[in-house]
Specification:
6-stranded mixed sheet, alpha/beta, single chain, globular, 14 helices
Length: about 375
């Protein structure tokens, strides 16, 4: 397979997309003309579509970069542009305004946008479990949510706090009452925890948690170890919410031919995630080729943890787990993300199920086994 970088556009400088005609292919061969190339058979031309990420280039999105790099989208007659995210970019707004066909976000964030009138629908639930943690020091542990009372507890905000806040309220702790707990909006790093300014800090298992383990313990001169930390996993607490999923506009999907485009987009994306599960080192290199801010060991750790969030997928990658959907909705209501359960049609599984029919190999990952990743200082 040839190695091509995904084209990235940052901010709101987005392409005006003209949809071209395309016939559903059976892995057509491409000539050497790059993005303008025509398939030798199967495709009249490639259909351009965009995917809006929710953050910057990193292994969290490895499957989509791999699908570009390995030609999986081209096999499905698609020319996919990956749009990089940032703090001030809201994928729901980008997709709702028609500036991208597909977006990635956490489920509660899209539910909130839908409640506000955006016609967004979850078409593939890629992450099957939450990656959110609250991390404290073993020598000053916050071992349970109840232990947060009277402590300084960090969260990023921006819609990332709901798992934490609902868990607090279940223990009789009001996150809005400073007499109960001091909630501090932390930056998107772990410096406040490392500097002992927080008793516990929010972290994603695939990112910020690793940043602590990539830091040097001044008392030992060695990297911090998991034994130095205490972790609260919201999957264990019972307030975990579904996170990364693919969404699109219902009105766009209703247009002739667009459901077919969506199925082919999902099939190629799922194939990208299969590649990142089964060809781990090659997938990490694809991410590195696309210029993440952190290095090899961090991107390897991240991909390993992301794979754990995806695999196994009991009903097949991208297919919603109804019980986890209902838990996410309940936490969203309890947390005030939405005032009532979403209307019928907030998610659909038919497109993902059709996409599974275009895949070869294991789409469930029942036998998936994570690897051991050795972190180095600074994640290099």
């Amino acid at each position: 397979m040839r190695n091509r970088n995904a084209r990235l556009l940052t901010g709101f400088t987005l392409l005006i997309l003209m949809l071209g005609a395309c016939v559903a292919p059976a892995a057509p061969a491409m000539d050497s003309g790059g993005d303008e190339a025509m398939a030798e058979d199967g495709c009249a031309e490639l259909t351009p579509v965009s995917l809006q990420l929710q953050w910057v280039t990193q292994s969290q999105f490895a499957g989509y970069f791999a699908a570009v790099d390995q030609g999986f989208y081209e096999e499905q007659c698609l020319d996919v542009t990956i749009l990089e995210g940032a703090v001030d970019i809201v994928p729901q707004q980008v997709v709702a305004s028609g500036q991208a066909e597909f977006g990635l976000a956490w489920v509660p964030k899209v539910l909130a946008s839908r409640a506000e009138g955006a016609d967004l629908v979850n078409i593939a639930q890629v992450f099957q479990r939450s990656g959110t943690l609250e991390v404290s020091w073993a020598d000053a542990p916050v071992e349970t949510v109840a232990d947060m009372a009277g402590k300084k507890i960090g969260t990023w905000g921006f819609g990332n706090e709901h798992e934490l806040f609902v868990a607090m309220r279940a223990e009789g702790i009001d996150p809005n009452n400073p007499d109960d707990v001091t909630v501090i909006q932390q930056s998107f790093d772990m410096l406040a925890l490392l500097n002992r300014e927080l008793d516990a800090a929010q972290a994603m298992i695939y990112n910020e948690y690793a940043q602590v383990l990539e830091a040097v313990n001044p008392e030992t001169g060695e990297l911090y170890q998991p034994s130095d930390l205490v972790v609260i996993d919201f999957n264990d607490v019972g307030t975990a919410m579904l996170q990364d999923h693919v969404f699109a506009r219902e009105s766009w999907l209703a247009e002739e031919g667009n459901e077919d485009i969506a199925v082919r987009f999902l099939a190629a994306s799922f194939k990208g995630w299969q590649f990142c599960r089964d060809s781990f080192d090659a997938c990490v290199q694809v991410v590195l080729d696309n210029g993440p801010t952190l290095g090899l060991s961090h991107m390897s750790w991240q991909l390993n943890e992301i794979n754990k969030l995806i695999w196994p997928s009991p009903a097949g990658i991208g297919v919603m787990d109804q019980a986890l959907w209902e838990q996410t909705v309940q936490v969203s209501v309890d947390g005030g993300v939405i005032s009532d359960v979403p209307s019928e049609g907030a998610f659909r599984t038919d497109l993902a199920e059709s996409a599974l029919g275009l895949l070869e190999g294991d789409a469930m990952g029942d036998s998936y086994t994570p690897i051991e990743v050795e972190l180095v200082e600074g994640g290099e």
